[in-house]
Amino acid sequence: MHFRKISVFLASMLAFIKNIGRIFWRAWFYLLVLIPILIFFPILLLFTMSEKTYPQFFWIARNLWARPILFGMGFFPKFKREANIVKGKSYMLIANHTSMTDIMLMLVASKNPFVFVGKKELSKLPIFGFFYKRTCILVDRGSARSRKAVYDSAQERLKQGMSICIFPEGGVPKEDIVLDNFKDGAFRLAIEHQIPIVPMTFADNKQRFPYDVFKGSPGRMRVTIHPFMNTEDKEVADKKEMSEVARELIFKELTAYGIS
């Protein structure tokens, strides 16, 4: 009986230590997010003063921000490329959305400069939000006027040779949902602008860095870049069907990875 009490106590202590370790590990993540921004603040400010210098900003965000965060947290991207992104061409990038690390992983996944379409609320975050609102296309999902402005802003960026990235679930789904229903905004944009859609499956982000502060661990982050979806022969009326095909493709890949 005495031995059993000691075992329970030791197990409780071990769980407590693990939880404290994860809290410090999480704090390290936010430091990795902020430190490069503070170090390169003057350069980032310069490159966000004009849309013409966005490619330079993107290069810094990809190589001096996203990569150090992923590797600094012990996350190691592993790509399975079923199609290759062509330099200088515009695409619509989509993926399942499960974690804050989706942003960093998407930056690493594409060498071509792209612009995120993201929710307006993130612009309120300190420091990060300052550059977020200067470089991303913000959308207030409760405003029809805001959604219309997204299409206008996306058109301008595509004319500049950029790609666009949208997480079509519209946000991070609840813990028990493997893959939420897709909204069709990304597919409508791609059809209207006749650009290929690049579906990606992020297999491990939810496990590696979920929103639960007491979960997560270092390890590999598997990414599948699926064959591109052509929009040249599509019309806006096809957006729903395309969104369902893309969702099914990503869902099957998650299942193949053992995610359920």
From TrEMBL:
GO terms for biological process: phosphatidic acid biosynthetic process. Pathway: Lipid metabolism. InterPro entries: Plipid/glycerol_acylTrfase (IPR002123). The keyword Transmembrane helix applies. The keyword Cell membrane does not apply. The chain crosses the membrane at residues 27-47. SUPFAM superfamilies: Glycerol-3-phosphate (1)-acyltransferase. Pfam families: Acyltransferase (PF01553). Residues 91-205 form the Phospholipid/glycerol acyltransferase domain. Keywords: Acyltransferase, Lipid biosynthesis, Lipid metabolism, Membrane, Transferase, Transmembrane, Transmembrane helix. One of its GO terms (molecular function) is 1-acylglycerol-3-phosphate O-acyltransferase activity. This is 1-acyl-sn-glycerol-3-phosphate acyltransferase. It comes from Kordia periserrulae. The lineage of its organism: Bacteria, Pseudomonadati, Bacteroidota, Flavobacteriia, Flavobacteriales.
